[in-house]
Amino acid sequence: MVLFKAGVNREWINGFIGQPILKKLVQLDAINKSPLKDIKRDKTGKSMSALDQVLSDYGTSSKKYFYKLYGENGNKVNDNLSRLMQKWYARKTDLRKHIKTKQDLTKTEEIEILWLFKQLQDIGKEDSNATLASKADTVGHGKDMVNAITSEEKVRKVLNLTENEFEEFKKMITGQDYNANVLSNPKQIIVNFHKKFDNTALGTYFKNSVLEFQDMFENEFITYNTESKNVVKSIGSELGMTYFTDNEMLSSIYSSLFSYAYSSSPIANLRPNQIKNLFYNTETNESLASEYYKLISRVNEDKKAVLEDTIFPSLLKTFIGKSEDRPYFIYSNNTKNKDKDDRDQFINTWLDMYKGEYGAELQQFSMKLLKYSFYTSGFQYGINSFHQLIPT
């Protein structure tokens, strides 16, 4: 896509992309991403990437030449990228012949094509990142606080700034004096990307949704709390994350952090036998699933089920085991995909129960349900979890 954007001749692009060495790289990359793959390892036992495998097949001298093109600390990348792009753009006919014969190019020439492809691939990724980072739509900062953080991190990644340097970008967005030299980072592939946000509609969108949203709730929610951010960054760095642009990964880290923090609260800090009592029926104990089943089945003097007029029976289901040695479950299928109005109604009903507006019996049930939700999924998303419905 980046070659099309640059106006490169389509015939040349087809000849370049069709090279046998690039097809082999793509095929190996697809195999490596499969969960059923056999991991290929080098002589030291280290797993090999698709690139490692291709270079291994071409021999030690070819591998050395590939990395030599980078120069020391990458100081030859731009020069060699320009030189090889000109060289191979002029050899369009040779590229097309080699697709058919696989004999028109030397190994060294094929390695040049492989290296050139990897550089263009990296540029393409940066271009894609820039597009995602500058996207504005009606969702605003995203569906939750984690999305607000990743929206900010996507911009920081494209600008190639440290967190301290990124403060200058924030100053620019909010109309404060800022150091323009910091933002004009020569390592950026997207030159002057920050200017897309300088006194533009995109900048206003970013300021009003991402930045102000975080400032507003910095001291209200653990997600924006400085201490929790530092913990998450520490965990992320251990996982090799430099930028927090992966919503799924960041949500998982925060969910684990919330679960750990919540586990020491009086509500969740139960003894082993108390936890067991939530799930199992015994001669002296009734599981919460059995209790819930009776609540949605039992009728009062008016012949109406206790929870008939609430949203609970339609969203929350039970699984009653056939023997007492099996756990009994309460679950909600695909909670996050439920209708938003139904989810909001469920949350409000649960909150009213907790406040005692449905009577003492349901108040006790609502508190047990909170504990049950925590011990079944923590705050991790699952196909049957319903922690998203907990009133906050």
Note down, in words, how this protein is organized:
The chain has 19 helices and 2 strands. With 392 residues, it is an all-alpha fold. Helix 2 packs parallel to helix 7, helix 9 (145-159) packs across helix 12 (201-217) and helix 18 (340-354) packs across helix 19 (360-377). The radius of gyration is 29 Å and the shape is elongated.
Along the chain, the helix and strand elements come as HHHHHHHHHHHHHHHHHEEHH
Binned strand content: under 5%
Radius of gyration: 29 Å
Number of helices: 19
The percent of residues in helical segments reads: 55-70%
Shape: elongated
The N- and C-terminal alpha carbons lie at a distance of 45 Å
Average per-residue pLDDT, rounded, comes to 82
Q: How do the strands line up in the largest sheet?
A: 1-2
Please tag this protein with its features.
392 residues, mainly alpha, 3 domains, two-stranded antiparallel ribbon, 2 strands, 57% helix, 2% strand, elongated
Could you write a compact summary of the structure shown?
The protein has 392 residues and is an all-alpha fold. The protein is built from 19 helices and two strands. 57% of the residues lie in helices and 2% in strands.
Could you give the topology of this structure?
Layout: H1 2-5, H2 10-17, H3 20-32, H4 50-58, H5 60-68, H6 77-89, H7 92-101, H8 107-133, H9 145-159, H10 163-173, H11 180-183, H12 201-217, H13 226-238, H14 247-262, H15 272-279, H16 288-297, H17 312-315, E1 317-319, E2 329-331, H18 340-354, H19 360-377
Antiparallel strand pairs: 1-2
Helix pairs in contact: 2-7, 3-4, 5-8, 6-8, 8-9, 9-12, 13-14, 18-19
